[in-house]
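ingest -> validate -> predict -> emit
validate: passed (alphabet ok, no gaps, 292 aa)
predict: started
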Amino acid sequence: MDRTIKELVSSGAKPILSSDDLGWSNITLSQWENIPPAHMYDASLANRHVIAIQGTQEPMHLQFFHQANRTEKKMAAGDIQMLTAGEKWSCRWTRSISFVKLEIDPHFLGQIAEESGFGHVGNGKLETKSLVKDEKLIVLTRWMIEEVRNGGASGELYSQSLATTMAVHLLRNYTSHAKSAGASYQATNQQVTAVIEYMRMNMENDISLKELALVANISLSYLVRLFKRHTGVTPHQYLIQLRMERAKQLIRCGHMSLKEIAAQIGLADQAHFTRQFKKATGVTPLQYASSR
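emit:
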């Protein structure tokens, strides 16, 4: 590789925002501002897909180099570049550039494809594309940025949900043959969404698996398999996570006693609530409240 080409991170450039401190691994996010003119490559492409969303407000010309080929593209704010893992790309720009970068683990993409009914997507392969316009992808990225800025305040369940939603969107739109499975995925996704919404609306009650199966209009055993395939956990585990996230919100508000919070989230008493909360978060409700 040309010695004048620098690696993005080792060049001294640093992101102004990164998901690294939150421990995200399947999809990571970083935001870069006003990186000076340079010719660089991204070493993360060795084993991860890279999506770069242009943030520079004024349109600018970028030169892309792939093997012996060179192309020049005029990119505006919001334009998206998708690069496939394992490919060697470098990019040159002549004035300061800003962008958001997403890195996607191909194995995670392949896992979501299998679990969500898309079938086998070879090595989680994402298509290389330039100058993509995709408002939904932009919105999902904004939600990720907000969560990183907030220090992961919405919890691991929320970040996992964002990553899975992003993966499904990429599978439906930017892999070679996954679109054919879209209709099947949509039907099962609606069933899981209905169950989650029922949990949210009724978490103060003693919700049974039988109730949830009736909401989804499927058998109990199939519900457990389907739900775990889409969320990574059983309905019971998901309900506990929902309850704990709701408890955190109520604790932060500071207007209710622990006994009242326990009743609001459907737990029998304060002692039961304290045990569940500590098991989920590693601290007691009172310790959590004092750290706010």
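The chain has a mean pLDDT of 86.
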